[in-house]
């Protein structure tokens, strides 16, 4: 049985990586998907692939940091499908940098895409979900929202903020039948992180830091994203669901082979 049959979903950053994987996974579960991305080519490609799966799909070139683009995204969705059931706030761009050197624009870029963009998109679709008296929001946070990612600019702050936005959405919108939950992926190999994982030394170092002993992939996220958008999670809201191979249990410390003794870690 398809768990998202005839639901209408918007996925931001759906052109590639985790967003694309979620968009395709939702389509396989019977959803019709609006693919939003700043990159027209990848957005179009994901949308075409969804149509080839037998579902309806449109794409919308969107910069989630711009309010007018978000309004267009919502209007196009309503014009095409008449409703919106699911929003996945996934679009993000990391601008790395040490705190003492981080340019103001780098701070703004990450904040505006990851946090303001998620707020704007949620607000815009929630106005329709409130009228429908139903809806699901899935915010793609990160393990970086739970633990500080050093030298990654404001990334951890954005992702921590997204967790609090999720909780706020859950309590403010529960009376309208809207659920909001966050996923905190760990190390996931995507086009966005490929530059890093292509280096075998970095790959091996990261792999060893995951209790399950492997770096994740898109499929490690899609199951959770389907669960949180479906009726299987009908009593779940305001939750932060990990998809990290166990990393959050003992971040930095749970390296196989390491042992604790006398207050130090070997
Ligand atoms: N890959 C990981 O290890 C990992 C871990 C934890 C969390 N995440 C989160 O998962 C999400 C997806 O990550 P990914 O690795 O698939 O990224 P990615 O870079 O591969 O894909 C991001 C997508 O977002 C789009 N995008 C960027 N700026 C945009 C904007 N202003 N408006 C609309 N679209 C925009 C890009 O064009 C791209 O298609 C992000 O929120 C990321 O922070 C990723």
Descriptive keywords:
disordered C terminus, Rossmann fold, 7-stranded parallel β-sheet, alpha/beta, 266 residues, binds nicotinamide-adenine-dinucleotide, two-stranded antiparallel ribbon, 8 helices
Question: Overview of this structure, please?
Answer:
This protein has helices at 17-28, 40-52, 67-81, 104-132, 155-173, 194-197, 200-208, 219-229, and strands spanning 8-12, 32-37, 57-61, 86-89, 135-140, 178-185, 240-243, 260-261, 264-265. It has 266 residues and is of the alpha/beta class. The protein has one domain: NAD(P)-binding Rossmann-like Domain (Rossmann fold, 3-Layer(aba) Sandwich). Strands 3-2-1-4-5-6-7 form a seven-stranded parallel β-sheet, sandwiched between helices. Helix 4 links the parallel strand 4 and strand 5 (135-140). Helix 1 packs across helix 8, helix 3 (67-81) runs parallel beside helix 4 and helix 4 packs parallel to helix 5 (155-173). The longest helix has 29 residues, at 104-132. The protein is globular and about 50 Å long. The N and C termini lie far apart (49 Å). The relative contact order is 0.13. Mean pLDDT is 94; it is low at 258-266. Bound molecules: nicotinamide-adenine-dinucleotide. Residues 12-13, 15-19, 37-39, 42, 62-65, 90-93, 113, 140, 142, 185, 187-188, 190-193 line the site of nicotinamide-adenine-dinucleotide.
């Amino acid at each position: 049985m398809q768990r998202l049959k005839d639901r209408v979903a918007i996925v931001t950053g759906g052109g590639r990586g985790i967003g694309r994987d979620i968009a395709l996974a939702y389509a396989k579960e019977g959803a019709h998907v609006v693919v939003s991305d700043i990159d027209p080519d990848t957005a179009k490609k994901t949308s075409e692939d969804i149509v080839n799966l037998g579902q309806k799909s449109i794409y919308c070139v969107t910069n989630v940091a711009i309010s007018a683009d978000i309004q267009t995204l919502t209007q196009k969705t309503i014009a095409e499908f008449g409703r919106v059931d699911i929003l996945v706030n996934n679009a993000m761009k990391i601008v790395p940098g040490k705190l003492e050197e981080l340019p103001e624009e780098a701070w703004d870029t990450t904040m505006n895409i990851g946090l303001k963009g998620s707020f704007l998109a949620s607000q815009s679709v929630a106005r329709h979900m409130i009228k429908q008296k139903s809806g699901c929001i899935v915010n793609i946070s990160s393990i970086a929202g739970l633990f500080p990612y050093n030298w990654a600019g404001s990334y951890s702050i954005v992702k921590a903020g997204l967790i609090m936005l999720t909780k706020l959405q859950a309590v403010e919108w529960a009376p309208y039948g809207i659920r909001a939950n966050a996923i905190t992926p760990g190390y996931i190999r995507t086009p966005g992180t490929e530059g890093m994982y292509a280096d075998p030394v970095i790959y091996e170092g990261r792999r060893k830091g995951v209790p399950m002993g492997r770096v994740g992939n898109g499929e490690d996220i899609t199951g959770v994203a389907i669960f949180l958008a479906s009726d299987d999670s009908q009593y779940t809201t305001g939750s932060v669901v990990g998809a990290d191979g166990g990393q959050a249990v003992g971040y930095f410390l749970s390296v196989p082979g390491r042992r604790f003794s006398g207050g130090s870690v070997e």
